[in-house]
Task: structure prediction
Amino acid sequence: MTLTVDERIKQIPHYPGAMMYGIEEGWTRLASNENPLPPSEAVLSHIMDALFDLNRYPGGEGELKSALGGLYGLAPDHFVLGDGSDELIEMVLRAMKHGEKNGVIVSEPSFPFYAIAAAIYDYEVKKVPVVDMRVDLASIRQAVDRNTRVIFLNNPLNPTGTVFDDESCRAFLRDLPPEVLVVLDEAYAEFSESPQFPRAFSYVDDHPVLVLRTFSKAYALAGLRIGYGVGEASLISYLERTRQPFSVNVLALIGAHAALIDTGYLQKVLANNRKGKDFLYSSLKSLSLEYVPTEANFILFRFGNQAEAAVKRLFEEKILVRWMGAYKLPDYIRVSVGRPDENIRFIEALSRVRDTLR
Result:
């Protein structure tokens, strides 16, 4: 093939997604921070009813935005929907590009798609190292220059599960130039139990902030790909202009609306996550493995210089977890919180693997 491709595109790394195995029966999938529980019965019922209308274009965005507005006390024009958070990230980069030089700041490590998408849209990417497994807001502020257009802050931070607090976030926003947009990606916010977790929706009318949330994690709709952004109405209007028409499919819209109002299901998910974290904490401690206390639905733990080998051994036992080499944490493994039986199977296998690698 003789197609000419820009060298900039050739240099963009592939997204380090989970190994795409484990669809068939017998696998324990703890690599992608998925909800281990299936969607609620209400979601499945509404989706089944909608199957007969797939000949029509999606038309339920207004209803979902109104439901979100009612839940959070904001007008519907404060919300934008996307084909997962990834589309929203790209919408930001399309809308915010201005002039010849444009810069993005991200923490390192953090969700890899920020830097990948920024490179696709020809932004200069500055990566600010985390400190003690936490986002370093002070160093991020120091990295801001006259070309900075967007700052991506992942809170809770993937892959560490740590958070920064409301007071620190407000101080950070007050100190920024007004032309810099801060994207607060709160994909795991529902799992956080910290009383100091930022009340980010209250920022959006006073600061250039876009808050990202998703239905992929706590609401178990990862396969439907639907997320939303929350921001000041004029910012939302600009983002809407960069969207593909009908980018969120009808089943995703209906499923998300049903999930949002099924509060009992959400509490079941959070209870499973809480119990699973406690079990994994105690089990990792009993194995003398250091872990990072998490505000999300995954745990980062240090296995040592054979972490990659351990992940491969677990794969041989049909257990998927994530080696963190792509995140520049080669001694670490990240495991999602699963169902009780999955957590037990993982710990039993991890114990065997650790003994064989000694």
